[in-house]
Design brief:
The chain is built from 34 helices and 27 strands. Helix content is about 50%, strand content about 10%. Helix 2 runs parallel beside helix 4 and helix 21 runs antiparallel to helix 24. The strands form 9 sheets. A 6-stranded mixed sheet has the order 3-2-1-4-5-6, with helices on both faces. Strands 9-12-11-10 form a 4-stranded mixed sheet. About 5% of the residues have low confidence. The protein is globular. Among the domains are: about 180 residues, Rossmann fold (3-Layer(aba) Sandwich); about 190 residues, 2-Layer Sandwich (Nucleotidyltransferase, domain 5); about 110 residues, Taq DNA Polymerase, Chain T, domain 4 (Up-down Bundle), CATH 1.20.1060.10; about 70 residues, no CATH class. By secondary structure, it is α/β, with parallel strands linked by helices.
Length: about 900
Amino acid sequence: MSSLQKPTLLLIDGHSLAFRAFYALSPDNFKNAQGQHTNAVHGFISMMLNILELEKPTHLCVAFDVSRESFRTIELPEYKGTRGETPEEFLGQTELLVEALNAMNISSVSRQNFEADDLLASLAFQGEQAGMNVLVVSGDRDTFQLIRETVTVLYPVKGVMNLARMNDTAVYEKYGVHAIQYPELAALVGETSDNLKGIPGVGPKTAAKWIQQFGSLTAILEHASEIPGKVGESLREHQELAVRNRRLNHLLTDLEFDFSIEDLKLGPVNESALQEVFAKLSFRTLLTRVLKLRGSNGSQHNAIRAEIEPDSNPAMDSAQSTAVAAKRSVIDLPTEPPKAQVANLETLLNLIQSGGAAISIEIAESKIVGCGVATKDARFTWDGQDTAGLIVLIESGGFSAWDSKGLSRRLNAIGLKLGQVSDDALLACYLNDPVAKDVNPDAMLRTHAGIDIIREDANQLLAESDPSLDAWIYACLMAVMIPELEGQDALGVYRDIEIPASRVLAAMEQRGIAIDKGILQAQFEDLTEEVNAIAAQAYSIIGHEVNLASPKQLQAVLFEELGMQGTRSVKTGFSTNAEALATLFEQTEHPFLERLLAHRDASKLKQIAETLMKAIEPDGRIHTSYSQVGTSTGRLSSENPNLQNIPIKTVRGQKLRSAFIAGKDFETLLTADYSQIEMRIMAHLSEDEGLIQAFNAGEDLHSFVGSRIYGVEPSEVDAGMRSKVKAMSYGLVYGLSEFGLGRQLRITGAEAKQLMSDYFARFGGVKTYLDQVVQRAKALGYTATIYGRRRPFPDLNSKIFQVRENARRAALNAPIQGTAADVMKLAMIKVFDEMNARGLKSELLLQVHDELVFAVAPGELETLTKLATETMRDIVILSVPLEVHIGVGANWELAGH
């Protein structure tokens, strides 16, 4: 029987994939009518349906872990001990997933004291013995040891939708060892996710080299005396770790089950049970998809939907579907993509010059290998000729794109420049719906135009493997989005803020910031020593070593050995998160807790230092990536690395910034930072006379407010009063409740209530404004900044108190934080353009929080200081002045203020 004729057994690691689905989709956007989060269930089922459509398995089983306890934890209690506590939003979702699988007539299995991987391994062995092709879906690399000619692992590389096919060739290409040897490599290197320490100093490349040289772990250990250098010494000294790791990462293949492989055969779903379960989950669109795929006859279809469908908090009912269809008709969009045509460069150029065209560019091996240009009525694929002419076309611009900033960076990496785009479909979609759970082109086209995109490959989404189709989607989206943004009065935010900001951010990302690697390395080494020293001190207090990152072991020490009473219960006992430990330390002042908290702080800084070092590129600079769509309020987020994550309020955090320097050909760094911008915007929006008076008079805000609340002169407001007032003022901006204020200030609820009452008695305008914000958002369904940026709030009318309360707090903050984000972007754009217009050689390097960071060219300090100060200060006229602080120094720490 050929492999194509063989039955296919699909095996899925339930917990592994459910957790990945949980983190891939925001839990806030997936809730049923009872307020139960369902994002993990939805993402898992969507992933599974994609695989069913693509692979067409004949048999299926999903394996779940019962708990973290297994025969492995009996030998090594800290096994997998580094894994954090289960997020509260995940609780209950596994049970719902099993219920949904049952309704779909899909088998699931779990067993006490064994991991899901062992169940998968044993089932894979049985399937192989039965002459089946076997597919194992797991995010655990231990499953690579199962790979055979007829066993393939589908390994998630991002979220749950992109699955890499890992066969022996793929494993060898990535790790330098055959699949069957992978657990031996892992035994030498260790596995962080399993809390298995490897041989110190031995990385994957060294381990692979040894395995290639000697053939196996056993042979390596037999020849350990022949391996030279420090790694050889380390291997001989710690070889028992590798032996233990190999014993623990071996998956069992001989478990027996009370069912046969044939019992796992797929059949039609139980439609009545499915409808009942999916109704409870609020999965309407997903229900249609399941029934279409595996309804009464259990038949499979070839269409592959690669996006996660908009289900939970479902808004796409029949009335809205009709509205979408009507909108598509008005805009005159086709119901499906026009046929792609191969075209020469002249045809592509003519299409762009006609207007309304979008482009998609495919890059591979440092060159352009594909390009598509389309309008909503036609799509063309570049014929591959005249590459030089295509480059001129790309650098001329005048077309729409998706994520033009990211495209610019990819082109820059191969020495090309993206011309000025006319539109960016990603930014338009984001502004239209900044809380959308899945901002990808296919999903946006379905939601806003009712057009389903059918792709041949479930992993094709956003991979640009069909550039003409992608370009057509972008063109259609712009045809839909521009009228929608006009209807929301948000076209100005799109044209005047987001599009220009994208251009500036692209230049900043490509420029990066210079790093003194020696300073960063020295700090990392100091922090490593500090972490180890603090750990030793903590061990000496309790008389033995313990994994300070393991919630389970900490629970044993704190609540069993030391007899403390936990402050917050979780599924596994009492919580050991940062807030719980801080409260516990305040109650007990136990020295072990003091060292534990210090260890966490130092470990976090060490991790940040290590992340920064790894992010230094060959040019000696860090090139962070800014996301304009990462927050619902318009604030920028930073990633790879996250520069907003560097602590600014601690001496050690500030010290990390000393490694960021001006670099060659520049004399210093300059920082320009808005002072209390959110409080100033709140004063303007609330029109509170007291706050406006304080800012216009140049008073110290918190001393001024403190004097009003406590009835004393500003000079008599002591540090304690000022601290409480500051927490109150900023807390109001973020919707802080009486309970939250009391907890933050460590005061009683009654004191917090009185403090808030006194505040509002003196600053009534603030109270009136905050009440009106929520009432208006409740009536309209959204908040808006002074520039028109909207943030939807459908949950303000939820029947569930906690959901409603979370929405209320977010609604209080959104207009203030969103306006601050708009002001910051406008200032950044104008400063950047002015620097270029004046021909300055200084460079804008970073935007972090409310701060711009510049590298100052020789002789330009005074000019740039004046330019940054005046531009940022005068970018908008409010009822109170904006204040800009300037800092200058050889590095970011010294330039701080």
